[in-house]
């Protein structure tokens, strides 16, 4: 009788542990891989991607593993924001439509980070990596 109780207890511990591990990987493990290629010619600090901040050197790439990414027209839906030393972010008015934004939770994506500059101001934008 004691042997059956011990086996039951061991079985329940193994079962609970298995569900815990499965739950962690299912709900929390990053399933989206984002590769960002810095094509601006500048070092960028505090690049905001899905609420996380990254530093990326000029002409280098950055691999990000995340739980999700919001996509619109095959590009990240958010306008890239980052800091470039000794330059000012442009106040160019931007109109974005909220239509067609999808939250993707699985896959691999590659994007180029590009820049428009005028005088001492800049504007960052996304382009599909080629």
Written overview of the protein:
This protein is α+β, with helices and mostly antiparallel strands and 130 residues long. The longest helix is centred in the N-terminal third of the chain and has 26 residues, at 2-27. The chain starts with a helix and ends with a strand. The strands form 3 sheets. It has a 5-stranded mixed beta sheet with strand order 4-1-9-10-7, with no helix packed on it. A 3-stranded antiparallel beta sheet has the order 6-5-8, with no helix packed on it. The protein folds into 2 domains: 1-30; 31-128, Immunoglobulin-like. It contains 1 helix and 10 strands; from the N terminus they run H-E-E-E-E-E-E-E-E-E-E.
List keywords for this structure.
130 residues; alpha+beta; Immunoglobulin-like; five-stranded mixed sheet; three-stranded antiparallel sheet; 1 helix
Chain-wise SSE layout:
Blueprint: H1 2-27, E1 32-38, E2 44-49, E3 52-56, E4 61-66, E5 69-72, E6 75-76, E7 88-89, E8 102-104, E9 107-118, E10 121-128
Parallel strand pairs: 1-9, 7-10
Antiparallel strand pairs: 1-4, 2-3, 5-6, 5-8, 9-10
CATH class descriptor name of the largest domain: Mainly Beta
Categorize the overall geometry. Answer: elongated
**Strand content range:** 35-45%
The rounded distance between the terminal residues' Cα atoms is 68 Å
**Global Rg:** 22 Å
Mean pLDDT: 84
Q: State the low-pLDDT regions, or none.
A: none
Summing up helix and strand content along with how strands pair, one would put the structural category as: alpha+beta
As a percent range, the share of helical residues equals 10-25%
- Please state how the strands of the largest beta sheet are arranged side by side: 4-1-9-10-7
**What's the CATH topology label of the largest domain?**
Immunoglobulin-like
Q: What composes the largest sheet?
A: 5 strands, mixed
SSE succession? HEEEEEEEEEE
Number of domains: 2
CATH architecture identity of the largest domain = Sandwich
Helix tally?
Answer: 1
How many beta-strand segments?
10
């Amino acid at each position: 009788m004691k042997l059956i109780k011990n086996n039951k207890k061991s079985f329940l511990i193994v079962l609970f542990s298995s569900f815990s591990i499965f739950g962690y990987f299912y709900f929390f493990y990053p399933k989206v891989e984002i590769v960002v290629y810095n094509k601006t010619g500048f070092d960028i600090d505090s690049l905001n991607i899905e609420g996380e901040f990254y530093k990326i050197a000029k002409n280098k790439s950055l691999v990000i593993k995340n739980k999700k990414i919001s996509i619109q027209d095959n590009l990240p839906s958010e306008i890239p924001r980052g800091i470039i030393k000794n330059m000012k972010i442009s106040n160019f008015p931007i109109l974005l439509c909220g239509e067609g934004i999808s939250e993707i939770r699985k896959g691999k994506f590659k994007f180029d980070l590009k820049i428009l500059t005028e005088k001492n101001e800049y504007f960052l934008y996304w382009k599909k990596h080629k």
